[in-house]
Write a structure and sequence with these properties.
CATH superfamily: Ribokinase
Number of strands: 13
CATH topology: UDP-N-acetylmuramoyl-L-alanine:D-glutamate ligase
Order of helices and strands: HEEEHEHEEEHEHEEHHEEEHHH
Shape: globular
CATH architecture: 3-Layer(aba) Sandwich
Strand order of the largest sheet: 5-4-1-8-9-10-11-12-13
Oligomer: single chain
Number of helices: 10
Distance between the termini: 6 Å
Strand content: 25-35%
Radius of gyration: 20 Å
Structural class: alpha/beta
Length: 331
């Protein structure tokens, strides 16, 4: 574990407070329909659930936005929603959470992305996805580019949050990175498979093991496999730093000069890993804006992931809880 003194920790937290972050990516709503199983359907061998409660949570890039806000930074979110009932619910939820919606683009040609989870007697019964994942083009793509250009000069960092739901096209990726670099901004990326190798020359590229295997057409079964794949990825993308998330095995940090360190997981009791990746990219970005080194930022992000994994459901990080957890341990 990388050592961070209490004085340095306080300096990092104080320095990133109030910084502005432009988050570009796929936004969605996580809907939970919660009830009880009352019988088996006579129409098919499936349970009948009487719904007693509906919950709506911000998901995808919007959950990153919420994490960034909870850390005391100022998020500006650029993404798309549908001109529909769930789009209206999304806007209301953003406003309720004191999050800005000036960068949100409404579209009549596609629905708001919604992930609906049906829960009966605390058991996850089914998930239903409503989405159109076709990538933007033409005038719709231009609308996103205008929002990026409008907001980027105000910001200290850019997060590209990709879920392969249509926003982060090659053109938008290239434009965002180029404009961020010309403004000397920190650029962090949470990639997905489709445009994995388009994210060149960023500050931090944060894939997981599965994404690396798919993109590089390799199998990673050992530490040596991991190191070789990491070097190959650095050669292809030239990031300043590669942060590989490894689930229960924690994270591995590889800087462009080739050094690698492993950061073990910090969750005491894993209840739910949902949303942990959003928390990692958010905390990592905030820490780097607070002048943390890559190793220090990865350590803080790892602690943050451990905290949210101990909660059920997609829960954003709490700044004070993170600070107390770090102070309470010798990091």
């Amino acid at each position: 574990m990388i050592g961070i003194s209490r004085k340095k920790l306080e300096a990092i937290f104080n320095a990133f407070s109030g910084k502005k972050v432009l988050i570009i990516g796929d936004v969605m709503l996580d809907e939970y329909l919660i009830g009880k199983v009352v019988r088996i359907s006579p129409e098919a061998p499936v349970p009948v659930i009487e719904i007693e409660e509906q919950r709506l949570n911000l998901g995808g890039a919007a959950n990153v936005c919420l994490n960034i806000s909870n850390l005391g930074c100022i998020p500006i979110l650029v993404g798309i929603i549908g001109d529909d009932q769930m789009g209206t619910a999304f806007r209301k939820l953003m406003i309720h959470k004191n999050l800005g919606i000036s960068g949100i683009v409404g579209m009549t040609t596609r629905p708001t992305t919604v992930k609906t989870r049906v829960i009966g007697h605390t058991q996850h019964i089914a998930r239903v996805d409503r989405e159109v994942s076709e990538y933007l083009g033409g005038k719709d793509e231009d609308r996103i580019l205008r929002q990026i250009k409008k907001h980027i000069s105000q910001c200290d960092a850019v997060i590209l949050q990709d879920y392969n739901k249509g926003v982060l096209t090659p053109r938008i990726i290239e434009y965002s990175i180029d404009l961020a670099r010309r403004n000397n901004l920190l650029i962090t990326v949470d990639p997905k498979f489709t445009h994995f190798l388009n994210y060149k020359n960023v500050s931090v590229f944060k894939p997981n093991i599965k994404e690396m295997e798919e993109a590089l057409a390799v199998k990673i079964r050992s530490e040596q496999d991991l190191i070789q794949a990491g070097h190959k990825l650095i050669q292809k993308l030239s990031p300043d730093c590669l942060l590989i998330t490894r689930g229960a095995e924690g994270m591995s940090l590889m800087e462009s000069k080739g050094t690698i360190i492993h950061v073990p997981t910090q969750a005491r009791k894993v209840a739910d890993v949902s949303g942990a990746g959003d928390t990692v990219i958010s905390t990592l970005t905030a820490a780097l804006m607070g002048d943390a080194s890559y190793r220090e930022a990865a350590t803080l992000a790892n602690y943050a992931a451990g905290i949210v994994c101990e909660e059920v459901g997609i829960v954003p990080i709490d700044k004070q809880k993170l600070y107390k957890a770090c102070i309470g341990k010798s990091i």
